[in-house]
Amino acid sequence: MFNPYFLVTFLYVGLAVLGALDASLTHFQIVPVIAGLRWMRVHFITLGALTEFAFGILPIVVAARVNVPRPQTRWDIWLTLNLGLLILLLGIPMVSGVLITAGGTLVFIAVILLMQQLGQMRSAQAEAQPSSGKKFYITGLAYLLLGIIIGTGLWQGWSTWLQIKVPIEVHIHANNWGFMSLVFAGLLIDLYPSFAGRSLQWPKSINRIYWMMTIGALGLVLGPWVQSNVFAVPGLILHLSATIWLVINVAKPLMGDRSAWTAGIWHIVTSYVWILAPVLVAPLIILKVPGFPGAGIEQNAPQALIYGWVLQFGYAIIPLLFRRVFTPDQQPKLGGNWFSLIAVHIGAMFLWVGIFANDSQATLHGIAYALWFASMLPIAYELWQIVRSGMNRLEQPVSLPATE
Ligand code: HEM
After folding, report:
1. Is 326 helix (H, G, I), strand (E, B) or coil?
2. What is the DSSP letter of 73?
3. For 261, which of 22, 25, 117, 241 is 20 to 30 Å away at the CA?
């Protein structure tokens, strides 16, 4: 079935590839810095590729899990989301309050409509399996709503009347630890049996993981909101423990089965390393250890998180689900290859080393973005091939029955 979200996802993956190339060239001072591109680089990936992708896939995954027919494309939601994104792409570089508010509001409405659509999908048959991922998705989207409100108001002073102490961190935490973490966890839980051919190590742990992540994310949002570690530290511990528990759930059943460790599985499991990196250095920032580049970390760590974790998770999962939709008769297969795996990790290492090596920072960061750019190429090509074969099938002439 044609899925318009996936075409737009593909378009933004293309833009993300160009964005990483531009970042590399600006670090090497080959091209000048263009206003607004920093925002776009991160949001091509987070909003353009992954949020768009989530809108396309969540109704399909939930419908399959609760055993109801695959829903028709809701064009009203698609239009609202994409108009909102386009208006933001115009409004943010211009720092136009009216456009940013209009874009943010449209994306906000699209998220509410999607939550409503998912919420209404209930099984008519008593024996049908409940969707384990569904509550992860709906809660994740609720965190996205919060992230949108704060993101939309970031340059408009909304945080003053919301009494937010460190608004950018609240925005990042709501979106990463709330939205992305929960949606990714739900997708892993729902899709693991199909791509790994076995069940998670401890299926009964799912409910606990859900609560630990949900409450953990709340602590991580409240922490920078009121600027207090009383919320942030327990939130971090809860969230991180749940994440580690989830990753062990995924990795343990594959132990000892070498053929199961494809590049795609490595992408998924090792992407979580880049969540740990900022967490490991966080205590040193909090304690303000002398000589430790706290400001550099705060400025650059989000990029490493987005490319190392969010994007890399997408490398494996997006092609899997593209195949499921565009070429449903083929075997489910995660995306990525050994080159994309190695390049994305070395890129993240260069970014982190660059934070500490002040003198050669520009060069090291230039290399990091060049490696990320290179790592995206095989994925973009893989997606292109899937989309092309899916579209070719759609375009095949339908043989009409003879009139006489
Ligand atoms: C309507 C939706 C959104 C709006 C209006 C928005 C707005 C913004 C703004 C204004 C900034 C500050 C940029 C800067 O200081 O240079 C920002 C930063 C950021 N946002 Fe968003 N955002 C949205 C959605 C998201 C989502 C869904 C995610 C992740 C899942 C996300 C992740 C980030 C990150 C990681 C940064 C920090 C980027 C950096 O340090 O370079 N945002 N956002």
Report:
1. helix
2. P
3. 241
What burial letters (b/e) apply to 201-215, b meaning 16+ CB within 10 Å?
beeebbeebbebbbe
Cβ atoms of 17 and 374 closer than 8 Å: no
pLDDT for the residue 129 = 60
Roughly how many angstroms between the first and final C-alpha of the chain, as a whole number? Answer: 31
pLDDT of residue 180: 97
- Distance from residue 175's CA to the centre of ligand 1 (Å): 8
The alpha-helical segments, DSSP class H, found in 260-360 are 263-271, 273-286, 294-305, 312-326, 338-356
Amino acid at 332: P
Any idea how long the chain is? 404
Which residue's structure tokens are 């919420």?
A: 119
Q: Which segments in the chain show pLDDT lower than 50?
A: 403-404
Residue 197: CB atoms within 10 Å: 12
pLDDT recorded at residue 365: 94
Token pair in block for residue 312: 């890399």
Is residue 113 a contact partner of residue 80, using CB atoms and an 8 Å limit? yes
**Ligand 1 mutation target, pool 22, 41, 43, 146, most atoms within 8 A of CB:** 43
pTM: 0.92
- Distance (Å, whole) CA 117 – CA 188: 21
